[in-house]
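Human: We require from you a standard protein entry with sequence in single-letter code and fold as tokens, and nothing else.

Assistant:
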Amino acid sequence: MVLKIFLAILFLIIICLFVAMIANIFLPAVKKQILQNTDLIFSPLEKNYIFRNVDSAVPVSDKRAVVLCDPNKEKIQRLDFNGINNCALIAKMYGSLTQNEHDCIGFGDCAGACPNNAIVIKNGTAIVTNECCGCETCVAACPKGLIAMVPKKQKSIQYKNDGENEHIIEIPVKKDFKFWRNWYRILK
């Protein structure tokens, strides 16, 4: 009886040591190997997007970006373009893909420049989400100058982008969940 108890305890100790060995030796080695082999899997552009430095200091401002173009407005296409999706290239070569020269091209140069991924493309138009920190990198990235910085508390903005009519964009007010945002950053 005592021998069976001794063997059971010895068996449990061996299993615990085996689990500790796997957790402390094998898993870190596998993780290192996976991170070192990313050169074979991802292109440099994808690697910058996936493995970007989360701890990098992004300046936070009391302003936010707004795209001066309505995503719900119907755009009349002037050109059918099947080349490289680059707003700067289209703006320089053709001016615009639509009949309105002041429409957003919608290929996402601004979204690629945003460090917070706060810009999404909807119906061929860039839209700034509530994650905007006001760093103004998207303003410099837009070749048409359609992105303006406004105070975060501002609820709407008037603009003329077709030369005739004034348009009003309703800016969603950010609901500030600082507590959950801080926990998310800690966990990330």
Summary: The first helix runs from residue 2 to 36.
